[in-house]
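User: I'm curious whether this sequence folds into something compact or stays loose and floppy. Could you predict its structure so I can see for myself?
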Amino acid sequence: MADPTAELENLFDDDDDIMAEEISQQPLPLQASYSDPEVMLAFYSRLFPYRYLFQWLNHSPSPTKSFTHREFAFTLQNDAYLRYLAFNDAAALKKDVLKLNPSRFEIGPVYTANPRDRKTLRKAAFRPIEKEFVVDIDMTDYDEIRTCCSGAAMCNKCWGFITMAIKTIDVALRDDFGFEQILWVYSGRRGAHAWVCDERARNMDDAKRRAIATFLEVIKGGSQSGKKVDLKRPLHPSVQRSLDILKDDFRGQVLEGQDPWREEEGAEKLLRLLPDRELCDALRKKWNAHTGRPSINKWADIDAVASSGASKTLDTKALMNAKQDIVLEYTYPRLDAEVSKHTNHLLKSPFCVHPKTGRVCVPIDSRRPEEFDPESVPTVTQLLKEIDEWKTKGNDDAEKIDDWEKTSLKPYVEFFRDFVSGLMKVEIQLKKRAREEDSTVKVEF
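Assistant: Here's the prediction. I'll summarize afterward.
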């Protein structure tokens, strides 16, 4: 029998049958907006990596129920929302995308039956049974602690919160739960999504998903609540590890980058998080005498004033715990936990285009999250222009390469391709091991 891992290398040939359709050669609408339907159609026909998306969700070269029973949902240009779509392979997905030209599409769970047949089935016979465990981090959840932007606005300063979240959550998923196949994807605007693709993660029921989501939640309460971190001591090793990861970012990203306590309103918020009234009165007096004092200095003032004996009732251990809680409140990931808790939740597909920014939802290398710059992510109109520029530079069209290879999307697609290749190799090894164990059991019987 041929080595399945050797055959895997052939899945990425440029002349793969899945992508054998002729790419449209109609002129690209370069002057149009990225939300223009013609622009989106050009992107979907020439740049979207259907083959790798299929292999990522299918976990096998040949179609399996992991793909054919998978729900897709399309948001059309007129905002109509089509759910329970399903496809036999990458070619079928591409055909419907080009036919319907959605502004974006989402990926849902694998069901017990084909989602298109749900109306012919008893309710009990149609239920979700498999999906990647996902984590959703959105910048709007940081509005109460970021000072540089708010709402839909975002800059590189506040993107630091997403970088901290990726570093913290990625380590927790790997070290605390043993997951290995984790794909981080930029949301296209102001957030990031983690897709945990290990077979064990995909097969978790909602109770296990809720347990992990709850474990990862440290920030409690809404925007109007007071103290959002109130942890028991000693700290759980996972939280202590997060503190160690985040302490340098607290200084650089928060104290220096956001400077949240420079003004009186921010300083009062900080004082409300400290445990001793006499200490707070002394700090308030000092800061009122030095208006506009930077946050990094006010943070140092806490220990300095505490050491001066300004408070006769100070509990130094309680102060230390409060300071740790403050660091976590301003650095620890703020998750949309509901997204993680339910198997049937849908999430935007990688490599879709965000309708507000025109940026592509590209992968993020979690080994080097600090190197990711959301403002450098290519827009759809930029990519279409790069294809034309590639031609004008005298490149030989006879050279058979995909259009994405002619653009700045190339490193992102290659990263995704390599991730998918590694995932599929793991899946093949797991299936081989299962067959060997099954054979052993039969022989023993």
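Summary: The longest helix spans residues 410-444. The mean pLDDT is 90.
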